[in-house]
Amino acid sequence: MQEELLNSVIKITKTRDIDSLEYSLLSTIQEFINCQRISVFKIIQGQGPCTVERSLTLRVHDVGEYEWLDRVIIDEPHAELSSCLQSACSITMQDSAGTERRWLPIVIHEKTAGAIEVQCEGLDSAQQVMLNAFVRIYENYLTILRENERDKLTGLLNRQTFDKKLKQLLEKQMLEQNRAIRDGSDLRSLHRGATSWLAMVDIDHFKSVNDTYGHVCGDEVLLILSQRMQEFFRSTDLLFRFGGEEFVIVFEPTDYESIKQRMEQFLNLVRKTSFPFIKKLTVSVGLARISPYDFPITVLENADKALYYAKEHGRDQVGFYEDLISRKQIKQHIESSDIDLF
Ligand SMILES: Nc1nc2c(ncn2[C@@H]2O[C@H](COP(=O)(O)OP(=O)(O)OP(=O)(O)O)[C@@H](O)[C@H]2O)c(=O)[nH]1
């Protein structure tokens, strides 16, 4: 037993990314405590009321038969889950058939980040101790992994995580498309023109902010801008600090008109935001569509070309890659495999 326990701790801490960590945690809990259902819930930070997503569920049907349920946003969290998240305390409920449901909070840097829900036939005290210990190990390890994913100054995702996150998003889109084709759904009516988008945001004349007011003031500008971005964009949009004064946003699928309007509103918000010392600050944006079969580098290059165009044509504006291509204002990126050599 002791050896099995040690091996399971090794399994959990061997993981190098947050998604695999969730799989390891749930399978380990299931291995030691016979459950009917285990889920990881996460609070998605954003504006307005607290949004919760069920990040992963392991549902056990029969001995040796189980299924994994994927990420889903929970509009109305269960009352007990909400209490657990708000109070950061464990909550247990038992129904008349003796089935127990437990919610254990996940606390990171003294803030509740989510909860683990366990549904089972009732736990003895040794199992309860074990369950608590697994959740604490998960909590500690999650703290380390989260810090590795984030930029130190702004707290946004860092560039190193970009390829992985975009790949996950593209795989999800591809799965959805394949599922729709398999189920015979009409893709056009299914998505109604909605695709994912990537925006590259770059502060205009940032060098002069540093040169005139110093690096500390420059850092403060970066911090305020990233806070505004976190408040303004949806909690499901991925925000990265890509380099010095460059940010990348990957949007959940939406149509062209909506993304256009949202980016214009964002530019307006930046114009109206007050930054220390600086009278006026603006940003330029390059926006490109993300298709399921794109390479991350291609999408970045497209957005970068559109950004370059926006910078060259007066700054404080959004360059739309597809628009610029169709108007022949920039040249299309050609994949090396598409080039006909003969
Ligand atoms: N304060 C601060 N400055 C940074 C950081 N990283 C990069 N920079 C500065 O960002 C500035 C980027 O300047 P440029 O690439 O010349 O661009 P720009 O002045 O914004 O001009 P345009 O992009 O053409 O509008 C440089 O002065 C860098 O030193 C950082 O973490 N903090």
UniProtKB/TrEMBL annotation:
Record's protein name? diguanylate cyclase
PANTHER family in UniProt: DIGUANYLATE CYCLASE DGCM-RELATED, REGULATORY COMPONENTS OF SENSORY TRANSDUCTION SYSTEM
List the NCBIfam families. GGDEF
| Catalysed reaction, written as an equation | 2 GTP = 3',3'-c-di-GMP + 2 diphosphate
Q: Which InterPro entries match?
A: Diguanylate_Cyclase, GGDEF_dom, Nucleotide_cyclase, Rev_trsase/Diguanyl_cyclase
EC number assigned by the record: 2.7.7.65
Keywords, A to Z, come to:
Nucleotidyltransferase, Transferase
Q: State the Gene Ontology terms under molecular function.
A: diguanylate cyclase activity
| Keyword Glycosyltransferase among record annotations | no
What residue stretches are annotated with the GGDEF domain? 194-323
What is its EC class? Answer: transferase
Q: Source species, please?
A: Pseudoalteromonas obscura
